[in-house]
Amino acid sequence: MTARVGVPTLGRRAVAEGVGTAFLVAAVIGSGVAATQLSPDDVGLQLLENSLVTGAALVALILALQPVSAAFNPVITLIERALGQIDSRAAAALVLAQVVGGCAGAVVANLMFDLSAVSVATTHRDGPDLWLAEVVATLGLVTVVFGSLRAGRTGTVAYAVGGYIAAAYWFTSSTSFANPAVTVARTLSDTFAGIAPASVPWFLLAQLVGGGLGLALVAYLFPTTTSRAALLDPEATHE
User: Fold this and answer.
1) For the chain: N or C, fewer Cβ within 10 A?
2) How far apart are CA 138 and CA 75, in angstroms?
3) Residue ranges of domains in the chain, CATH in brackets
4) What pLDDT shows up at residue 131?
5) What GO terms are given for molecular function (predicted)?
6) CA 1 → CA 47, 156, 236, 237, distances in Å?
7) Using only C-alpha atoms, what is the Rg of the chain?
């Protein structure tokens, strides 16, 4: 028999978003540091290690926290607001929790590898090719998340998102940040996964553009959606 969590309070949802985003960022940065230490002379292997760990962490975190809240991404949360799934107050609280949680995850990752708690990233990631990659990466992520949800396949979202992000690390030139909270948090670690603060504004703009395009595509492809109660309860939908 499966226990039901009921409809979670905003406070519980914010905590879930903060904790989930913190673990996600810790996985991204921590695996990047470990990869450079374990495979110092092979950048391709470093990226493989980084992408597999990130994808696996996403699967685990979404499976664990989905009954409460498991967006871990301001773009996803803003689209939920645009679709009327949450109100503006909830959206603001969840986005704040994601950003704060992501920054906390970066600090913890640095400390776990005996680095300074905060080291401002110096890796510049600039250029139209990378900005286009972020549009594509975010568009794809939104399509995967909301396509799965609108098809009623709530139980598959974790695997779809984890698999997509692991793949997008490779097929996008930007290595698929596709997440404003994670992007901001990665400025706090001057390591393999870092991004210089000066590069962040264009990345955020590209992610918002990709999110908007993704919203339009999902609305066109899936003109109807399941109820929020069904989205919160994987047992309520069946493939």
Assistant:
1) N
2) 8
3) 10-236 (1.20.1080.10)
4) 98
5) water channel activity
6) 41, 20, 14, 16
7) 17
> Which two three-digit tokens encode residue 232?
């919160």
Q: For 186, which DSSP code?
A: G
CA distances from 15 to 12, 20, 55, 85, 163 (A): 5, 8, 22, 19, 25
- Quickly tell me which residue has 């773009």 as its tokens: 75
Question: Which tokens go with 23?
Answer: 């673990």
Question: Cβ of 159: how many Cβ atoms within 10 Å?
Answer: 16
Give the pLDDT confidence of 112-127 residue by residue, as tens digits. 999 999 999 999 999 9
CA–CA separation, 18 vs 152, rounded Å? 26
pLDDT digits (tens, 9 = 90+) for 85-111: 999 999 999 999 999 999 999 999 999
Helix axis angle for 128-150 and 74-82, nearest 10°, is 50
Among 66, 231, 81, 215, which residue's Cα sits nearest to residue 151? 231
The two structure tokens encoding residue 166: 């692991």
Res. 8: pLDDT tops 70: yes
Tell me the one-letter amino acid at 123. T
Length of the chain: 239
pTM of this structure: 0.90
**Is 179:207 a contact under the CB 8 Å cutoff?**
yes
Residue 87, pLDDT score: 96
Vertex 84 angle, CA 61 and 215, to 5°: 70
